[in-house]
Write a structure and sequence with these properties.
The complex is a heterodimer of chains A (about 110) and B (about 110). Chain A is mainly β. Chain A is built from no helices and 11 strands. In chain A, a hairpin with a 2-residue loop joins strand 6 and strand 7. Chain B has about 110 residues and is mostly beta strands. Classes of the chains: A mainly beta (about 110), B mainly beta (about 110).
Amino acid sequence: KQEVTQIPAALSVPEGENLVLNCSFTDSAIYNLQWFRQDPGKGLTSLLLIQSSQREQTSGRLNASLDKSSGRSTLYIAASQPGDSATYLCAVPGANSKLTFGKGITLSVRP
Amino acid sequence: GAGVSQSPSNKVTEKGKDVELRCDPISGHTALYWYRQRLGQGLEFLIYFQGNSAPDKSGLPSDRFSAERTGESVSTLTIQRTQQEDSAVYLCASSLAWGLQYFGPGTRLTVT
């Protein structure tokens, strides 16, 4: 059974800092990995989708990497801003593309 | 075009009552998923519909939970005889076949 872990559960950083959010998964037989953002009381917004054939995917200040062999993905946020404060979730698909999620990392960026 | 919509956005119900949650997927999306997010827990898969195929119900936690979808349109998740542990945010997502899943805003269910 796939398990996805995100540590730490919460992170607080000053504005402007570059930071890395980690995600690990137990079953490396995945065909993609997705990073989401969730704001309080809101649904999920997809940030980046990395296919298993890719090593990195970039969108603006966000860069996600995937290392299937080690069962790890990282989300790099450059020059963090208070508006980046949210919960960040990673998820991997299984049979029928149903997603298995980590519990998320709640990020707080202090002005 | 419109995204995935869910209704109601919030629902408070008494223990033992039945509730129905609705999901309107993105038009043309053949796949529809229901997930649950309980406080302090990760999102859990509940059920999956793909076109006219038999649904994947492997995530439903008990026989009090059921869901329906007519064709490629609206889906309804029904919880019978609600319990306090059913309190959660219920999220719906839709996608093209096995593509990127787009999530709705969720329904926050509180069972008192």
